[in-house]
């Protein structure tokens, strides 16, 4: 997580300073940390707690409650599969099972080589085109196992 010339703690303190007067500053700070470093490392928890004058348990609780926050780096490719009702009704669960089998991981995990992280979401706003997924930042609709395999192969081989 270290950036050249700046310690993680210094960078986190700078992010806190940018939100010091904001009500509910923890969430925007955590989002900025994740955007900058790719995940929220456990080493930032005591720094945030001290800087925001809240308990480590409070910080940890927020990080673990919201599924948007990662506590370890994601793979080079992030696949999010929708499991909301509209997508479930057109085969999302079969698609998730297929992805887990093909990748050899469960939802919430990253492949051993760090190439793909598989995540679940509960709506991508693409309900009419379910089952839907998001590969990196691009939303995909009408996913089938074959189409998902092709998209993953293309993304991983870039």
UniProtKB/TrEMBL annotation:
Q: Does DNA repair appear among the keywords?
A: no
Q: Which residues cross the membrane?
A: none
Q: Any idea which UniProt keywords this protein has? A: 2Fe-2S, Iron, Iron-sulfur, Metal-binding
- Comment on bound cofactor: Binds 1 [2Fe-2S] cluster.
Q: Which domain of life is it from?
A: Bacteria
Give the family from UniProt.
Belongs to the complex I 24 kDa subunit family.
Residues the record lists as binding [2Fe-2S] cluster: 82, 87, 123, 127
Q: Under the GO molecular function aspect, what terms does this record hold?
A: 2 iron, 2 sulfur cluster binding; metal ion binding; oxidoreductase activity
Record protein name field: Formate dehydrogenase subunit gamma
Cofactor(s) annotated in UniProt: [2Fe-2S] cluster
